[in-house]
């Protein structure tokens, strides 16, 4: 293994900053575990003056992505820009330049999964995206590695931290939608444009990725019937509560008896005894049914800078080991 793994970081927003901080926090542990040092050599970021609560050498910042792609010493590019473009093009350029890529970008993956995975294969580099679905929950590694022996019949999940936070706070504390959305944004759960969260598009992106991995079925996010939570009122929540239920934004995909895969994203009443009813705040959960493993449930923080950084850095470490 190389003694030093050099990283180019694309984006120093909430998740980029969290990743930088988590690396600093756990650097000694990570480097001892890995037997190699991790160095962030360049950061592509326009906003170099924002107070992020960390001291970053200004010389690390660049506004030109070619600084990273053309640097032969960079081993891994971490893409944390969000959005489909220019993130997709940047990841393709990085892989064509022989760099491994780690991304948390569910929108880019859901839109361009074939392009990105084919580019990785053609250039003999790794593309890892554990952070793209379920934040810190190690879902993708489990589905693509440990659970490979299964044929799956069903997946059901709470896959958006922002909307689950809003619904939980409205339900548990009787608070207003707008106030709680603002709080979720401040905590770094929400997308840059929270419309993607509250209208269910973020969940549709994640469900699209999961369906490719779980069922081998490619469905573009726009083809997933999707309803968000923006129309849910305090009265809706009170009515559900009076019937012993909570409202959760669920992602669902399942195999029908004739072998078709059906899917949807929609707010759903769940009895309070349902295992997903107790998943609160920014926590996510995914239920899977496989024909060998049977029922399986994953639970953990699905949004936020540090949980997401956990998955991002885990991918970097996996690549560095490989
Ligand atoms: N905005 C997303 C969420 C971030 O709230 O779940 C994690 O993908």
What can you see in these coordinates?
The protein has 322 residues and is of the alpha/beta class. It has two domains: 150 residues, 3-Layer(aba) Sandwich (Rossmann fold), CATH 3.40.50; 152 residues, Dihydrodipicolinate Reductase, domain 2 (2-Layer Sandwich). It is built from eleven helices and eleven strands. The strands form two sheets. It has a six-stranded parallel β-sheet with strand order 3-2-1-4-5-6, with helices on both faces. A five-stranded antiparallel β-sheet has the order 9-8-7-10-11. It is globular, with a radius of gyration of 20 Å. 45% of the residues are buried. The model has no long low-confidence stretch (mean pLDDT 97). Bound molecules: L-homoserine (HSE).
- Regarding CATH, which class of the largest domain? Alpha Beta
Domain count? 2
Fraction of residues in H or I helices: 25-40%
Low-confidence residue ranges? none
Proportion of residues in β-strands: 15-25%
Give me the CATH superfamily of the largest domain.
Dihydrodipicolinate Reductase, domain 2
* Ligands and ions found: L-homoserine
| SS content category | alpha/beta
The average pLDDT value, as a whole number, equals 97
Measured distance between first and last alpha carbons: 8 Å
CATH topology of the largest domain, anyone?
A: Dihydrodipicolinate Reductase, domain 2
Order of helices and strands: EHEEHEHEHEHEHHHHHEEEEH
Named CATH architecture of the largest domain: 2-Layer Sandwich
- Which strand order do you get reading across the main beta sheet? 3-2-1-4-5-6
Number of helices: 11
Total strand segments: 11
Largest sheet: 6 strands, parallel
**What does the radius of gyration come to?**
20 Å
